[in-house]
Automatic annotation (TrEMBL):
InterPro entries referenced in this protein's UniProt entry, alphabetically: Anoct_dimer, Anoctamin, Anoctamin_TM
An annotated GO cellular component: plasma membrane
Keywords, sorted A to Z: Cell membrane, Glycoprotein, Membrane, Transmembrane, Transmembrane helix
Annotated spans, Disordered: 1-20
Protein name as annotated: Anoctamin
Main location: membrane
UniProt cross-references to Pfam families, sorted A to Z: Anoct_dimer, Anoctamin
Domain Anoctamin dimerisation: 45-262
Keyword Cell membrane carried by entry: yes
Subcellular location: Cell membrane; Membrane
Amino acid sequence: MESLTDSWSGEEDNDQDLTSICDREEQLPGYHEIDKKQQSKDSVFFRDGRRRIDFVLSYVDDKNDLRKQERRRVYEANLEKEGLELETEDKSESDDGRTFFLKIHAPWEVLATYAHLLKIKVPFKANDIPNNRDFSMTWLFKPFQLPDEVMHPESDYFTSHFDKEKIDFFLIDDKETLFSPSKRNRIVYYILARCPYYKENHKDKDKTGIKRLLTNGTYTSAFPLHDCQYWKRSRDPNCESERYDLYKHWAQLMCFYKEQPLNLIRKYYGEKIGIYFAWLGFYTEMLVFAAVIGVMCFIYGILTYHDNIWSREICDPEIGGNIVMCPLCDRKCGYWKLNSTCTSTWQSHLFDNMGTVFFALFMGIWVTLFLEFWKRRQARLEHEWDLVDFEEKQLQLQLRPEYETKCTGYQINRVTQLALIFACIIGVIAYRLAVYAAFASIMKDSPTSKLQVVGSLITPQLATSVTASCINFIIIMILNFTYERVAIWITDMEIPKTHLEYENRLTVKMFLFQFVNYYSSCFYVAFFKGKFVGYPGNYNYMFGKLRNEECDPGGCLIELTTQLFIVMAGKQLCGNIQEALLPWLKNWWRNRKARSHPESLYSRWEQDHDLHIFSQLGLFYEYLEMVIQFGFITLFVASFPLAPLLALLNNILEIRVDAWKFITQFRRPVAAKACSIGAWQEILNGVAIFSVVTNAFIVAFTSDMIPRLVYYYAYHPGTEPTMEGYINNSLSVYNISQFPLQNEPEDGENPLWFNKDAMPTCRYRDYRYPPEHEWQYSHTTRFWHILAAKLAFIIIMEHVVFVVKFFVAWMIPDVPLDVRDRIKRERYLIQEYLHNYEVEKLKVQLSQSNSHSRPDPDAPVSVIVETHNVYSECL
């Protein structure tokens, strides 16, 4: 092979077209036989060892299906008309003996043409603007940094949109390396997605693009190649082996404390995937602060564990042990003593204390800082990754092939698709109401009960809450599969014009579905459970039969904490299993035989062909998972200050699992450009604003913080504020003799200690007048005082947090000052260089024309005027 390439070295120096050289080589006798013996099957080049494989198509040839054969023949012919070069690997050379692989190479002319069309930027001059950023403290972060050869710091250049008519304006050392492999596969895929597979003057103009060919089975797969095996470097010195570097320094779990090589990620996978990992890394860094404050609030609850008087009163045998509570359900629930909730009351204090209010206020400010600082980080990445002039308009100009074929369809009412979610939520609520009676009957406080000891720790409320949360989580995961497909189906029926529009529409639909699916049960526990119960003798019922749930004297906050923990932790666990374990098992099953073969029989395209497919919406699901988590740690964080810690631990693992998955388990995705996280930014902003409202309502209505403060400052006994007597003050009295028959416990359901004659009244959680009062069972003035205090707290908290949020957002500019100044300076210098280039080019044209003939005076004048106007406008 070396002798063949050397024999045409002089022709290469004369810039002879590479394709003609290769064609002449293939005409030599024994060319293919020599090449197959000498070239590694792990190579990412054509058989000539020079032309890089930019894309691979695979298919299984069915000789009986003439339609597929004709489609492939026409499609490949049209690809060659576009200038792409093709090379086919026969099925006899494949591992399974039945799959053909079509290798595609984009020569320079094709790359230059489409680089201009896709507005790809190319350097034209080294950036001579000094970087004034302060690096004096870099030694502090040295343990967290990766070496420069891994971080892939690129030289700083002035860049401009590529124009093949100005080829001498750009810095081009080697045409073959000017466009990185990720840019090359992006260009080739753009051609593949729009190339028709019909003959000229054919009536079916919708027969276009590789996507439809994959759908109808003409081709089985289409993908760009990884540059090497992930566990070792490529033996080809012309190959970058970036996949190996990413695996070694990014995908290893032991690198969890190291920074991510974002520049290398962007170079290998494209800006769209790079910006996702940049956002995920920044989000994880910001979670450190939220997790630290959350742990401190939890520690505060532990330190004040024995200082809360109301819990001691509940657990005191002389106080809580003498308070008889009314049954919590009809017929199957008996009377019970208040001290039976001693354990849950202490548990509730860990999360329901003064630290809860502080943490809710802190998270309202934290979320603003996170979003504002991310805008600054994103602006810096846009500058460093040369995306400043990249606008969504450029994506809007790139129509989806599905839209270009002018398909027609109809749109269905998406609102009705939420009906199944609400039906399932109602079903879970019905489960809670029905099963509580069974748990209460099993765990009733009886000296003869075998579950007496267990019942003291696991109350009927806790057992019902945990099992209902687990069932709800299972339903959530099942509905996920359904609603993902519904959202995609609806969006496909709408036929969005561009890929950007398609993703934005799908993003909104999917988030609305998932929002209701994941958060509805938490909203029920936080804002509905225990709020519409009624009172003994006048209970409220669901469906006319199931009595609405009550909160125990410890409050509903502990149940919301349980619900949040189970759903959040379960989702993260299942997500990691689904993302990592399932692809690994599929890939292991698919290539279990091929791994036993030597490398010479298992080519690079076959290795990648056996990997899992990274779909066009793969990154969408990664964002969705993190945004749902973001909702958990913001919308309900007042009830569970440890939620940011769980999210932090999950995300540390998530980054490395995602990296490992991308590098080892998935085919290399087609590179795509993006300068932001898209529609997710607006969704995060909406969740951040909504979280202020939800946390204010949780503190006011779900937590017992406001009733305690009202009692402490307004209704305490004696002259000094104290919490003594709070429990007795917060419980109302009911006359047992007034119980309707349908509410009374059945025979045998009451505990042995209960004596109806000796205990004529029972207590319940509310603020109502006693039976002997003239306004019996009506709300007391204390109830209205507490309600007014709750509403006042909500208004004050919301206004305080919103004022701070908007002030912080106003104080922090979206673009750092140094980045803004550099952008302005670079734009000015780029215009100046372009102007000078046009002037010099014009002088050369004038001198050449003067030496032959008199030039046309109109042409140069127009060029001078145009360039002068641009230059003057910039100045």
